[in-house]
Amino acid sequence: MDYQRNMVQGCFLPLILLVAVAYLSSTTWVSAEVGIDEGNQELNRLEDQVNTLKMAVEENYLRRCEFLSTCGGTNNCSRDSCQPLNFGDVKKYMTCKKVITNGYCPQCDSKNFDFTRSYVRQSNSTDTTSKDTAAIICSQRGLDAAFKSVCNETSHSRAFLGTVDGTYIHFPGSDRSKDECTAYDPRIRPWYRASTSLQKAVMVLVDGGALGSRLRTPLSGVFLTLTKDIVADLLNTLSENDVVNVITYNNSNATPLASQPKQVQYNLSSTDSTYHPEFSELLDNLSSSNKDNGGGSSNISFGITKALDNFKNYDTYMKIIIVFTVGSNINSQGNGSLAALVGKNVKVFVFKLPLYDDTSTPTEGFFLKELRSVGGSYNVLTSTEVKNRLLSIVPYFSFLAKYRASLNDSADYGPVYEDFEHNVDKVFPITKPVFANDGRLLGVVGLNIFLDELPGNKSKSVNDALAGRNGGKAFDPSKFALTAANASIYNDTYPTLCEDGVSSMPSPSEPDQVLCAQNYTRSIQDLACCGTCEGNSKFKHILLGVGVPVTVGIVALLVYFLHRHWKKGREPEDKYVWKGGGNAPKPEGAADPLAHNMTGDTSVEEGDHPKPEEGVGDDHLAHNR
Description:
eight-stranded mixed sheet, 33% helix, Ca_channel_alpha-2/delta, 16% strand, alpha/beta, single chain, Rossmann fold, 18 helices, voltage-gated calcium channel activity, transmembrane
């Protein structure tokens, strides 16, 4: 009997084991499928919330005159994150919310947030005296109602709007350290670029015959100096793997400032989002260009021909030419090079910076007619726009964002990044571009989702579902056609938002007008820190995603007990000694399932520094938000 029993066990127990493993594996597979479905449902819900915010921004723009008429004063000003108010005045509005670690006081397990209103931040390049900036801030004060509808004290997300002038509006409100505030520019963040860009080759043409020319008041300054500053800011908006070159042209030739276009590299700096040493050659050579060239005419045909040569190895890229010129004799030349652009699908943007003695009224002469025929863009820069250099070239950003949005209407997903405010490294943005009714880009709206805060297995489910997002928006040359129908010949780049409202609107630089006046002088820690602030944070991160490790553990236990039973059957009962000890094997600890690789300043917003292997990277560490 013992022999027969051993034979049965020897033959059938391995079969039983295989069946058990197959069953558990199928269960795990089904569980994974269910998890991804749950993750997709959650992402769909979050995308709906982003659409809600997008529609609110568009509606506020249409109601801008109404908002402008009531903007200003202590009851209608916007809170500046970098200009705190007296804590006694706002403490009753603050919510002490649990965080993994407070970046301003790492010993605390909570941070103060204002869920009653959004706060505003502005970049170094934002012109805080500009009526356009004031109009943007005032018109989007009505966004708070939409913010509250998607974010509350129990939400695992934060809402935001980054605008074309460099203003960043975020909810819930939170105060910031003054030394980290103004360096934050939303327009160079990966989440902003995720909704406003595609892979592209950009050739920047600079009018070499006018490098030393004085510009018309109130632009003031020298053409080369101002152009170099605009180009430097433009380069910082490019994305990883874009390519770029700068070409100067005059009346006899064109000179590339690098022998080959430069490929944009991943930013390795954790503290400087503008760290791109690959641009040094371009900017250094532009700075050292001959400033004695002033007032001479230039032939743009040489520049365009040289740009086309630089495009030869980039057939799958969107091709962009950006021209900075004083416009001398631009309409008196025949430009065969422009006609040569027909069918090549190269988008040309021409920005004119008028000379000090230029009193001409823009007319559509020969050059502009040719430019229109190939779907080009022409704009004359004004003093207001040049102070905010990226705002001065907003037609370029509008075109990129509009084309990207035309590919499909799905939301955009930026790279996973680190969050300073919560000291966690698994945050991802969901964004969408927002446009005015005339097609001009207003900005990018979105949500930052905190994976580590999601309850239960939802964190892993959402993380797994992320892999299937962001598809269908690669540049497709076969679907890119430029004709007179998509040309844009304007006299200025950013028309006043509301003529009636702006003329009587208070200045943003006046206290208690657009932005509330600062009246708090204590440290940021007094404002930001709350809750338990002794020793290490008591808020422990709960390990998620244990489905696979638990399955492995169950299989291990099954193998162990089957082996024990089989071994016992093979040995004489009087000689059997179990040597396994008193404890069965334990499942291995759950591994972190959340490392997620997604494509994707001198500051960082509520987090935003992805690991180098994760992609390009917002609050204190550097790249994203």
